[in-house]
Structures are given as structure tokens and as C-alpha cells.
Design brief:
The complex is a heterotrimer of chains A (about 270), B (about 280) and C (about 350). In chain B, about 50% of the residues are buried. Chain B is built from 12 helices and no strands. Chain B has about 280 residues and is an all-alpha fold. Helices cover about 40% and strands about 15% of the residues of chain C. Chain C is built from 12 helices and 10 strands. In chain C, strands 1, 2, 3, 4, 5, 6, 7, 8, 9 and 10 form a 10-stranded mixed β-sheet that branches. Classes of the chains: A mainly alpha (about 270), B mainly alpha (about 280), C alpha/beta (about 350).
Chain lengths: ~270, ~280, ~350
């Protein structure tokens, strides 16, 4: 399928894999090595403590809420950005990307200033008896914040690439907008959506900084896996920290596997 | 019932107008949803932040952001993030190409690990990088506590952006044009430059924008290996943290606002370049 | 079809691992869970503390729950960097007890009315004073065998000696370290130390130790209890050196306003013999005189130990030394940039 010469293909492969090996594979290898150095038994004990199990489920819960919501947002936003003729799209796009540029330190500060006891919404929430910050809702908001742009940014270029000729043709043939979307657009962007979901999930489960500030770190209640990693690190339990990280890596890999399998169903690639 | 799409006449004007009005309504709804979601999640907290930044008036804002440490941190942060974004954009294309167009043993495994820098908590990334590139490095290099070490950490955490932005587009890319060009005698690199690259450009810029944005805000994976030396390897997020810890939330908010503005400008610039380029597209 | 089977298997597997979870991070699987919710718990106490004493409170809390005052009291615990925890409580995190690394972090909660103004008097009822639950000393951590022969503060200024100490502006608790230096040779000593012998500025004490064990530097300025806890948890190749003159670290504990009686009981318990012995086991100097005497061999006294009071209290120290704009340490940091700025 490629038009490059064999030499060209090989040199790109060597360069790409070399870069990956140096930058990515070696560090990941080190993490894996250090994780399993104490032995499988220890690793298993490490990830089945009550604290680790709560952290695992809380992490999954946060991702399970944030990722689907951001996926819907992402597809809608990508459609607006690429297919519509709204003015000021560049500003919208920039604001969508902004969550990335915001350091976790800053997100924490901003959320304190909004939902904290002395923040804008703080007194109102306290009066109403609603606890947002230092409990799960605040963590959900922080998680949604940090993985907001992924699906948009993955889907938009694909939408742009495939063009809207097929969609227009479908409209000419009398298809309703929903039918067009479901039968033509969605299948065409599915790899974009898939990778968007994979990245969002990886980011959502791996996020430490922003979630840390608003979580309150209440053992067994608001401690996610990344927070547990940090907690174990602070308590000189490095192998426990690595074990919990390995669990996160497994979740990320499982997500990729799931998305890839779902894509493959419709297309032998 | 249409007999053939090619010979069917265009829908009557009334239907077309109706569709356009419907499209406008749907677009309106879409814009509404997007704006509402953005506002609640992103803009509202940022508004609270901006208000705090100006809590002491413009004077205090200016003092906080023009301090030498603040400026130095900002310059370093932006500079290193730009470099990292460019490197990972280029690397991203090469890696995505290898993953999509090439076939080799272990391709699926390599594809699987690309996202791991995201899933790994930043402290683990930090410890690992220190072990690999620090004083106890098995390879013998000691880059720790240098500006290069900050770049290495950032390259690690932003790698997935460059690759995954380009990958889905490459998968969807129609190879007909490339094959046609090749059959007309164009060499591999020529085909890539004139046909593939323009099509990938929006995706490449998209990945670069995300990589830049993430690099600018990165905190956890840098703090261990950079040494946080003021005027040398201290990034803006660490400086902001210092302000918070020193009970100076106004100063922290002020520098945060500036950092965000600069990032916003960068992202807007990228978007403008993107649309400039696509205007030459025949769509 | 295969996909559906695979996904169902994944979900089933995940559910199989599901449990009620809990707070205990004990690998032996024993339910020493400090936060276990016994049926019909009368009171729930929220303890917000800094990170290092987590191991100690994990032992103290179950012991408290065996006493008549502690029966039926369940706990919610939160551990993190002292400054972060203080800010969190100020921003609304529920806390009945705060146990932080240094007194200013508790003082910050007085203005918002979260902690009573006279919190330092709370420990008197239990025989303590000043609101402290443990103390420690600023000490040196060196590589095993002490290759550079570090014995006192002056040795840190020997040519070529590299010192690791966290940045006092990112870690409030790191101020203890610099006070140790300050009490030895004043601001001039601190300036020489920071500008010529400190190559990096780790964000926190824990990260400073990590940087040191990662191979950087010859000496780490740290706390006695940090060393003991690290060694107990498996850290090797390090040694403790106690200089003859140093600074006293004092860790506060306070019951917040509107906390239930159980919180006051817990504070009393924390200063009692059982709890203080647990602290001693992990390297913290007990404030309980009897327990301290019993463990004297573990805690030798250097000839000179200065305290915060010798320098006018934290308010004065923070204003003079650590104010981010006018403090002398801030000035040192900013001036150093002139020579190293690129």
C-alpha cells in the first residue's frame, strides 16, 4: 500500500523506532522492571490492598463519567468547527485547547477560587449543603477539565480530511440528518473517535495534579490510583507506587485494546 | 425513488432552503451545547482566576508578572515547549507513518505503548527519568538538572500527541493520489512532500498545538529531574506553586493568567496558520 | 462475536476484583483499617495531617479505638504536604483534627475561624505544651561510610561539597532546614550555602531525599524522623550525622472549632504513653517526658539546640527571612540569578 521505496521505508522505520525506543520504550521498560522486581506475589498483594481497590474503582468511576461526556462534546464541537460556517471558530478552538495549557497547579487554584469556602460559589454551595470540592463531584469536574480537548482534536482533522461530499450526496438522496450522521459521518470518523477516547481515558485515569488539589485525599474515599501512587511514594513504598502505576498502564492498554477491537469489527485493517 | 444519483436533478430550491435553515438551527444547537459545556467546565473557573489576579489592582498584577523570576520562568517555559512541540510533531509523523503504512513484528505492541506516557502518573515518570538520565544513569549520561532534562521530560509526556493526531488521518487517507503520482514517476519523498504532507498538515498542527499546550503546563514529571533552579531550569508552573505556597495567591493568579494568555495566543496563531493553509485546498 | 465475549470477560474479571475497598493499604491483608466503619459508629472524626506520620497514625488510631473514649469512633484520614493540607482546610475541607508539619500552617486556619485562637493551649490538658505532638532535629543525611567526613555545618562549606535541601518557597517545611543553617552562621552562612553549595532545589523533603538517593549531592539536610522512617521502610546506603548545633523542629496538632468531644479525646490520647511510644518507634521525639526518657538512647541531645522562640517566633522569621519579596532568603535567591541567568 505504500509508495515509498524499500530503502526509504526502512530508514523511516529505523528513525521512528529509534526515537521511540530511546524516549519511550526504555523508560517504560524501566518502570516494568522495577514493578516486577520484587516478584509477582508482592505486586499482587500491592494492588489488592483495600486502599488500592478503592482507588482503582474511583479512578474507573471518574473516567467512566468524564470520557463519554467529553466524547459527545468532542464530536459535536468537531462538527461545529469543521462543518459549520460560524464566525470566530478560531477563538472557540483556542479555548477548547486551553485546558491542556493549564498547569494542574493553576487548575487547582482556579477551582479553589470558584468552589472553595471563600470562593465565588463557595458560600452558596455551603448553604445548600452541596459538597463539590473535596469530594467526588469536584474530582469529576477536574477530570472533565483535563481531558476536554482530546476527542475534538482527534476528530476534527479526520472530518476535514474526508470532506463532506458523501454527506451531501446522502442529503441529496433524501437521508435525514441523523441518518447521514449515523451511516456516513460516524463510520468515517470512527478511528478519530477511537483514538480520542483512548487518549481521553489514558489522561483521565493518569491525571494527578488537578485531581489531587481538589480531592481532599481522604483515604478510601477520594484517593484515585495516581494519588495512591503519590501517597505510597511519600511513604517510601516505591515498589507499591510502581505496582499501582502498572495497574494504570494495564487499564490504558485495555482501553486501547477495546477500542481497537470495536473498530476492527467493521473494517479489516 | 431515485434511479441514479448521478442523473438525479438537484433538490428543488424550496427543499434546499429548508435544509439550510434546518442546518442553521442544528448548528445553533451545536454551538450552544459547546459554549455551555465550555463555560461551565473551563471558562467559569478561569474567570474566578482572572478576578483574583486583579484583586490588588493593575499595579499589583504588573509587579507580580514582571518580577525577574517570573519572566525568566516564562521565557524558559515557552521556549522549551515550542522546541518540544516541533520535535514531537515531526517524530509523530514518522512514527504514525511507520505504524500505519509499514508492517513489522511487534507493530501492535509498539502501537499499544504509545499512550502510556499519559497513563503514568507524573511522579513515576519523574522518578524513572531521574534514574535513566540522572547521576545514577545506567547509560552513563547525566543530564539531570539541566535545561535539556526538562526537554527530555516534556518530550516523554507529549509524545502521544504527535503520533495520535496524525494516525487517524493517515488511516483515512486515500492513497489513490499517491499511487497516481508514483505511476507518473514521482519519487517517494516527492510524493510525500506534495501530496501526503498537505493533507496531514491540519493534523500535524493539531498535534503540535496540543503538545505545546501540555508542555507549557507540565509540572509533576519535571520537578524531580529539573532541579527547579530559578533563572535556569524553573518552569512557570513551579514558580506559580511557589507563590501559592508563600501565601501569595494574587501573584500566583497573575502569573497564571499571563501564562494562559501566551498559550492562548500560540494556539490561536497555530489555528490561523492551519486555516491559511487549508484555504489553498480545493474542497 | 469474539469481541463481545472478550469484553464481557474483561468486565466480569473486573467485577470479580471488586470489593468494598477501604482505606487500609496494608499488604498483609489484615484489616488494620484505621477507617473501617464498624456497624453503628457513634462519631466520625476527620484527621487531616501531613504525609510522613501516616505510618504512625495507622497504629495510633486502632489503639485509640480500643479505648473507652475511642470505642465506636470511625476515622476519615487525609495525608499530604503540610502546606497543601492547610490550604485545603482553609478552602473548606472537613477537619476535626489537624496535625501539620509546622505551626504557621495551623495559624493560617485561625483567621477563617476554623481553629480556635488559643489552639496552642489544647495540649496542656494532656501534659504537653505549645500545641505540639512531636519534635525532631534538623540533621544531615550522608552516604554510608560518610565519605566526605561531614560532621558539622562548617563541613558543608568545604570546597566541592554539594548539599541537597528543598526550596523553602515550595515547601514550607523546608524552612526548618534553613533555620538550622541560620542558627549556625546567620544570613552570611545561609548565603554561602545556597549560592555555592546547593546545586538543585527539590520541591519537597521527600523529593530531596529521592534526589539524594538518586545520586546527587554529598549531604542532604533533613529531619531526624525522616531518616528513621526511611530506613525502617527499606532505604539503604544512608547514614545520619547529627551536628553539634542545630534547630528544633516542632510539629503541631490542633482540634478544630466545632469538633466533637472525641477529637479532644484523641488529642489527649496522641500525647499519651501508647501513642507517643509509637511516634518514638518511627523516629519522632516524644513530647511526653516519660516516653522520651524511656527512649533516650534513640534520641541523643546535641549540645546546642535552638528553637523558633530564640528568633522571635515564626511571624518574625517569615517576615525577615522568607517573605517572597522582602525576605533575606528571597533576596539571596533572586540575586543568585544574576550570575546564573542565561
Amino acid at each position: 500500500m505504500t509508495t515509498a521505496s524499500p530503502v526509504g521505508r526502512l530508514s523511516v522505520r529505523v528513525l521512528a523506532l529509534g526515537y521511540l525506543a530511546l524516549l519511550l520504550l526504555v523508560p517504560i521498560g524501566v518502570v516494568l522492571y522495577r514493578t516486577f522486581e520484587p516478584g509477582l506475589g508482592e505486586v499482587w498483594d500491592s494492588i489488592t490492598t483495600p486502599a488500592a481497590v478503592s482507588a482503582f474503582w474511583l479512578t474507573i468511576e471518574l473516567a467512566a463519567i468524564a470520557v463519554p461526556l467529553n466524547t459527545i462534546f468532542g464530536i459535536v464541537a468537531a462538527l461545529v468547527l469543521v462543518r459549520s460556517r460560524v464566525r470566530g471558530k478560531w477563538l472557540l478552538q483556542a479555548f477548547i485547547d486551553l485546558p491542556f495549557a493549564i498547569s494542574p497547579v493553576v487548575i487547582g487554584l482556579a477551582l479553589f477560587l470558584l468552589y472553595g469556602r471563600q470562593g465565588w460559589l463557595g458560600p452558596t454551595l455551603t448553604d445548600a449543603g452541596i459538597q463539590i470540592i473535596f469530594s467526588v463531584p469536584g474530582m469529576v469536574l477536574a477530570t472533565i477539565f483535563v481531558c476536554l480537548p482530546f476527542v475534538v482534536r482527534e476528530v476534527a482533522p479526520v472530518l476535514r480530511e474526508i470532506g463532506d461530499e458523501q454527506e451531501q450526496a446522502a442529503a441529496t438522496l433524501g437521508a435525514s440528518r441523523w441518518q447521514t450522521f449515523r451511516r456516513i459521518t460516524l463510520p468515517a470518523i470512527r478511528w478519530g473517535v477511537a483514538y480520542g477516547v483512548v487518549l481521553s481515558t489514558a489522561r483521565a485515569i493518569g491525571e494527578f495534579g488537578a485531581v489531587s488539589v481538589v480531592s481532599g485525599k481522604i483515604s478510601g474515599e477520594t484517593v484515585t490510583l495516581p494519588l495512591l501512587v503519590e501517597n505510597r511514594y511519600s511513604n517510601f513504598d516505591l515498589s507499591g507506587a510502581y505496582a499501582a502505576s502498572a495497574l494504570l498502564a494495564v487499564i490504558a492498554l485495555a482501553t486501547l485494546l477495546a477500542m481497537t477491537l470495536l473498530q476492527r469489527k467493521g473494517d479489516p485493517r | 425513488m431515485a434511479t441514479s444519483a448521478a442523473t438525479a436533478p438537484a433538490p428543488p430550491a424550496r427543499a434546499r432552503a429548508g435544509r439550510r435553515a434546518g442546518t442553521r438551527g442544528l448548528t445553533g444547537l451545536g454551538v450552544g451545547v459547546v459554549t455551555l459545556w465550555l463555560s461551565v467546565i473551563v471558562l467559569l473557573p478561569l474567570a474566578a482566576l482572572t478576578a483574583k489576579a486583579f484583586d490588588g489592582g493593575v499595579d499589583e498584577f504588573w509587579t507580580a508578572v514582571s518580577s525577574r523570576q517570573a519572566v525568566s520562568a516564562l521565557k524558559f517555559t515557552i521556549g522549551v515547549s515550542v522546541i518540544v512541540a516541533v520535535v514531537n510533531a515531526v517524530a509523530g509523523v514518522a512514527i504514525a507513518w511507520t505504524l500505519v503504512r509499514d508492517d513489522f513484528r511487534g507493530r501492535r505492541l509498539v502501537n499499544a505503548v504509545i499512550d502510556l506516557p499519559f497513563a503514568l502518573p507524573t511522579i513515576v515518570a519523574g522518578i524513572t527519568l531521574l534514574a535513566l538520565w540522572g547521576p545514577r544513569s545506567p547509560i552513563g549520561v547525566n543530564l539531570a538538572f539541566t535545561q535539556v532534562s526538562v526537554a527530555m521530560a516534556l518530550l516523554f509526556v507529549t509524545l502521544p500527541f504527535g503520533v495520535r493526531a496524525v494516525q487517524p488521518v493517515l488511516i483515512e487517507l486515500d492513497t489513490e493520489m499517491e499511487e497516481a503520482a508514483a505511476s507518473l514517476g514521482a519519487s517517494g519523498p516527492r510524493v510525500f512532500r506534495s501530496i501526503v504532507l498537505p493533507n496531514l498538515m491540519p493534523a500535524i498542527l493539531s498535534g503540535a498545538a496540543l503538545a505545546f499546550a501540555r508542555a507549557v503546563g507540565e509540572f509533576g514529571s519535571i520537578v524531580l529531574i529539573s532541579g527547579n533552579k530559578p533563572f535556569d531550569t524553573q518552569v512557570s508552573s513551579v514558580f506559580i506553586f511557589k507563590q501559592i505556597e508563600s501565601d501569595n495567591p494574587v501573584g500566583a493568579a497573575a502569573v497564571s493568567v499571563v501564562l494562559l494568555l501566551v498559550s492562548l495566543l500560540m494556539l490561536v496563531a497555530l489555528r490561523v496558520i492551519e486555516s491559511w493553509g487549508s484555504r489553498h485546498d480545493h474542497r | 462475536m469474539r469481541t463481545k465475549i472478550l469484553l464481557s470477560a474483561l468486565v466480569a474479571g473486573a467485577l470479580a476484583v471488586a470489593g468494598c475497598g477501604g482505606a487500609s493499604d496494608d499488604k498483609s491483608g489484615g484489616d488494620a483499617s484505621a477507617a473501617s466503619n464498624g456497624g453503628g459508629a457513634k462519631t466520625s472524626l476527620s484527621l487531616v495531617a501531613y504525609s510522613t506520620p501516616e505510618v504512625v497514625y495507622d497504629q495510633i488510631i486502632p489503639a485509640f479505638q480500643k479505648t473507652p473514649e475511642g470505642k465506636g469512633v470511625s476515622f476519615k484520614t487525609s495525608y499530604g504536604a503540610s502546606g497543601d493540607q492547610s490550604r485545603a482546610v482553609a478552602a473548606g475541607q472537613k477537619a476535626d483534627l489537624v496535625a501539620l508539619s509546622l505551626a504557621p500552617d495551623v495559624d493560617k486556619l485561625v483567621d477563617p475561624g476554623l481553629v480556635p485562637k488559643d489552639w496552642t493551649a489544647q495540649t496542656e490538658a494532656a501534659g504537653g505544651q505549645g500545641g505540639f505532638v512531636t519534635t525532631s532535629l534538623v540533621s544531615f543525611v550522608v552516604r554510608k561510610g560518610n565519605p566526605k567526613g561531614i560532621k558539622g555545618w562548617d563541613d558543608l562549606l568545604k570546597p566541592g561539597v554539594k548539599v541537597v535541601t528543598p526550596n523553602p518557597f515550595t515547601s514550607g517545611a523546608a524552612k526548618w532546614n534553613l533555620m538550622g543553617a541560620y542558627q549556625h552562621g546567620g544570613i552570611d552562612y545561609v548565603k554561602k550555602l545556597l549560592t555555592q553549595h546547593v546545586p538543585v532545589q527539590p520541591k519537597s523533603g521527600r523529593e530531596a531525599l529521592q534526589t539524594f538517593t538518586g545520586g546527587e549531592g554529598d549531604v542532604l539536610i533533613s529531619y531526624e524522623y525522616e531518616y528513621t522512617t526511611a530506613v525502617k521502610k527499606g532505604e539503604k546506603d544512608i547514614e545520619l550525622v547529627q551536628p553539634d548545633d542545630t534547630f528544633l523542629i516542632q510539629n503541631p496538632i490542633a482540634v478544630t472549632s466545632n469538633a466533637p468531644q472525641a477529637a479532644k479525646d484523641f488529642l489527649k490520647f496522641a500525647l499519651g504513653d501508647t501513642a507517643q511510644q509509637y511516634f518514638a518507634d518511627w523516629g519522632y521525639r516524644p513530647v511526653n517526658a516519660a516516653v522520651l526518657a524511656k527512649n533516650k538512647s534513640k534520641f541523643p541531645d546535641p549540645p546546642t539546640v535552638k528553637t523558633v522562640d530564640d528568633f522571635g517566633g515564626w511571624k518574625k522569621i517569615n517576615a525577615e527571612l522568607f517573605d517572597p519579596e522582602k525576605g533575606s532568603v528571597a533576596k539571596i535567591e533572586n540575586d543568585a540569578g544574576v550570575s546564573t541567568a542565561k
